Amino acid sequence: MTRACHAAVGALLLALVAAPARADITGFIGANTTPANRQTRGFAVGVGLLIVGFEFEYASTTDDPTAGAPSLKTGSGNLLLQTPGAFFGFQPYLTTGAGIYQEELLAHQDTGFGLNTGGGVKMNLVGPIRLRVDYRVFKQGSGALNSTAHRVYAGLNLKF
Questions:
Q1: Inter-residue contact 90 to 106 (CB < 8 Å)
Q2: Which CATH number fits domain 20-159: 1.20.1530.20, 2.60.40.10, 1.10.10.10, 2.40.160.20?
Q3: Which ranges of the chain have pLDDT less than 70?
Q4: Which residues are paired to 29 by β-bridges?
Q5: What is the pLDDT of residue 16?
Q6: Fewest beta carbons within 10 Å, which of 53, 56, 84, 130?
Q7: For residue 84, cis peptide bond before it (omega within 30 degrees of 0)
Q8: How far is CA 26 from CA 130, 131, 137, in A?
């Protein structure tokens, strides 16, 4: 076979097995539990293929000076590995990503590179509306007051 023929066969096979891309957006509220429980709010915008998804996520956690708990803002790009669709209304996923964080408490301020790992589930509610529940562990730079932070949230997810 010629190179052009190989390319044409490859393109045809890719077109036959490739799933259409799906997008979603999530608004969430939850808790950052390190070192004390504080409210977290944020959003995520993502696109997924068959089992691989990509998302951008932003979250903001309030501070609690009396508990020595800093505010934390994170923005990250994440990779999701998920089931191809929902099973009995549930679509579980694992995620990992990297991005920027900013931590502040009184006179302390630290901005740096951070990593996150976690997982969750998207549960069908009505039509394109789903409930998303997520748990993440954030690893922050050496200048952070808490080099590891834990976050759990629930939010409404709209798939389109």
A1: no
A2: 2.40.160.20
A3: 1, 10-21
A4: 41, 154
A5: 46
A6: 84
A7: no
A8: 9, 9, 19
Which value, to the nearest 10 degrees, does the dihedral of the CA atoms of residues 57, 80, 133, 45 take? Answer: 30
Q: How far apart are CA 134 and CA 76, in angstroms?
A: 15
Q: How many angstroms separate the CA atoms of 119 and 121, rounded?
A: 7
* pTM of the complete model: 0.84
For residues 79 and 52, the answer to whether their CB atoms sit within 8 Å is yes
Closest residue by Cα to residue 30 from 126, 125, 136: 136
CA angle 42, 110, 39 (to 5 degrees): 30
